């Protein structure tokens, strides 16, 4: 009997200890987890209306630790292990912008693939591309991104609520392209455009464009019978070194036009607000009857002009 009672006691003691931990809402959590309130300060981007906000926690050696997403742009409460972290943050739930990278230095936002003529909504063979950008991947223009980084922040264990304030600012740049004095504008003619030499991605850790050079397809608006415009945002241009930028216009008559806008982009007074102007273009007539070349596109109207 004494042996049986002793065995029962030995079996019950670990259970009591475990129950004690559970009753105190997990001893491990009490010792190592911290309640943290994340606040987003929008003073640098007061007009921002993100769908969600993402905060990526990295340890000081750059390894990824945990991802948190907030449905309120003001922030919210989370539980985090006590320690020192680097935090990268940006808006989430974007249609064409994704996240990649498993370290702080390689983590970036990038855009998805797009067809070169997708903005035209026509099933047409791919047009010839400028030789300087013929091999560039074709990517969507991103949605507006607000982002930032907080370097080496320590979260200490304790009974009080720990507060972190993060200040996002716009990471994308604004571009407007205006083509004036356009002749032969017609409702029967579909038109789209593309701009080469743009940045594929954005890295919050360095607040800079990154990735390969890509070509971005663009929709063209027609504010009147003599003007074409494009408005979009991007991660920037020339992610590694300065190169050429070709603005191409494609038409449903399989005639295209190339304009070298490199100087206008590189010499812009504000690199986050770039305006490009092109003056004078004659579009093909929809009843021209011109015969396309072997690849389906007529290059007889190709214009390769360096604009000042």
Indicate the topology.
Layout lengths: L1 H22 L3 H6 E8 L11 E8 L4 E7 L4 E7 L1 E10 L4 E4 L7 E4 L34 E10 L6 E5 L2 E2 L2 E11 L7 E13 L4 E12 L1 E4 L2 E8 L11 E6 L4 E5 L1 H5 L6 E10 L21 E3 L2
Parallel strand pairs: 1-9, 11-18, 17-19
Antiparallel strand pairs: 1-4, 2-3, 2-5, 5-8, 6-7, 7-12, 8-10, 11-15, 12-13, 12-16, 14-15, 16-17
Overall description:
Helices cover 11% and strands 44% of the residues. It is mostly beta strands. The strands form four sheets. Strands 6, 7, 12, 13, 16, 17 and 19 form a seven-stranded mixed sheet that branches. A five-stranded antiparallel sheet has the order 3-2-5-8-10, with no helix packed on it. Strands 14-15-11-18 form a four-stranded mixed sheet, with no helix packed on it. Strand 2 (52-59) and strand 3 (64-70) form a beta hairpin. The longest helix has 22 residues, at 2-23. The N and C termini lie far apart (101 Å).
Condensed summary:
With 308 residues, this protein is mainly beta. 11% of the residues lie in helices and 44% in strands. The chain has helices at 2-23, 27-32, 262-266; strands at 33-40, 52-59, 64-70, 75-81, 83-92, 97-100, 108-111, 146-155, 162-166, 169-170, 173-183, 191-203, 208-219, 221-224, 227-234, 246-251, 256-260, 273-282, 304-306.
Q: Could you tell me the number of beta strands?
A: 19
Query: What is the count of helical runs?
Result: 3
Order of helices and strands: HHEEEEEEEEEEEEEEEEEHEE
Shape: elongated
Round the Cα radius of gyration to an integer and report it. Answer: 28 Å
Strand content: 35-45%
| Average of the residue pLDDT scores | 87
Judged by helices, strands and strand pairing, the structural class is: mainly beta
Give the % helix: 10-25%
Major sheet: size, sense and barrel closure?
7 strands, mixed
Uncertain segments: 1-30, 290-294
Distance between the termini: 101 Å
